Amino acid sequence: MSAATVTPPATEQTPAPAPVKAHDGEARIGLRANLRHIGALARRNTLQIKQDPQSMFDVLLMPIVFTLLFVFVFGGAVAGNGKQDEYVSYLVPGLMAMMGLNVSMAVGTGINEDFQKGVMDRFRTMPIARSSVLIAKIVVEVGRMMVAFAILLAVGFILGMSVETSPLHVLAAIGLSLAFGASLMWVFILIGLSVKTAQAVQGMAMLVLMPLQFGSSIFTPPSTMPGWLRTFTDYNPLSALADAARGLFIGGPVARDVWMVLVWAAVITLVTAPLAISKFRKKT
Questions:
Q1: Rounded distance, CA 283 to CA 276, Å?
Q2: pTM: predicted TM-score of the whole model, two decimal places
Q3: Three-state SS across the chain?
Q4: Closest CA to 92 of 15, 28, 159, 30
Q5: CB 163, CB 249: distance < 8 Å
Q6: 225: Cα within 13 Å, side-chain hemisphere
Q7: What's the rounded mean pLDDT across residues 250-277?
């Protein structure tokens, strides 16, 4: 009798699980969905302001305080006693640049605080483009900046500011200031993502704010400055913005200053926006 051949049972090969690909919101989400997410996040940020009205105090009070301070404290020394009206027309267009810079700083502080609270961690787990979170912040801050500009202009007109051009020129000055302010927001977002605390954001921001603000033509004509400071002022983008806005308000050549501001805004955005988005993805 021949021995039966025993065939060993076939072993089932369990297929190895496919590697899970990390979600890449930027690659999968189309433009329409991305815009919808930006709108929803901007609405969320706006509702936060509604729940905390004190967060608007800076844009409501800062234009009033700075205009009154510089007109009545420094106006007589700069323009001469009794010539505050002339100084108002010089100062207010320049203060638009300063307001944009100060409002932009709040974006970096807000981003940092949202990370400390864990809000951004929740956003990063959602199937949304990473850039939409940051762009929504910028959209809301641009709205806050418009409020600051409206109050600044109202105070300027009350104090005797005159506009010698047309309303379209004034709107062009506002639009130019908004564009430059929005580009600066990417800088402060990057700072907010790079340091650990909101206090550190404010400290680093002041190192940027002070030289740019006071080493510019916002408050006084550069002709009164020493030569080395005048050189810095000539290349300071805030000087170009202040001079462009001033020209659009009271007339004069503005093409060079407008182009300089637009180039600065484009370069700042193209350099810092990708860095900020990349930092946002990798931040732990």
A1: 10
A2: 0.82
A3: CCCCCCCCCCCCCCCCCCCCCCCCHHHHCCHHHHHHHHHHHHHHHHHHHHHCHHHHHHHHHHHHHHHHHHHHHHHHHHHCCCCHHHHHHHHHHHHHHHHHHHHHHHHHHHHHHHHHHCHHHHHHCCCCCHHHHHHHHHHHHHHHHHHHHHHHHHHHHHCCCCCCCCHHHHHHHHHHHHHHHHHHHHHHHHHHHHCCCHHHHHHHHHHHHHHHHHCCCCCCCHHHCCHHHHHHHHHCHHHHHHHHHHHHHHCCCCHHHHHHHHHHHHHHHHHHHHHHHHHHHHCC
A4: 159
A5: yes
A6: 17
A7: 92
pLDDT > 80? residue 34: no
Structure-block tokens of residue 17: 């699980």
Amino acid 157: pLDDT: 92
From the list 93, 95, 99, 98, the residue with the least C-alpha distance to 247 is 93
Angle of the 130-158 helix axis to the 31-51 helix axis, nearest 10 = 50
What pLDDT shows up at residue 76? 67
Cα 226 to the center of its chain, rounded Å: 31
110-146: per-residue pLDDT in tens? 888 878 777 777 777 777 777 888 888 899 999 999 9
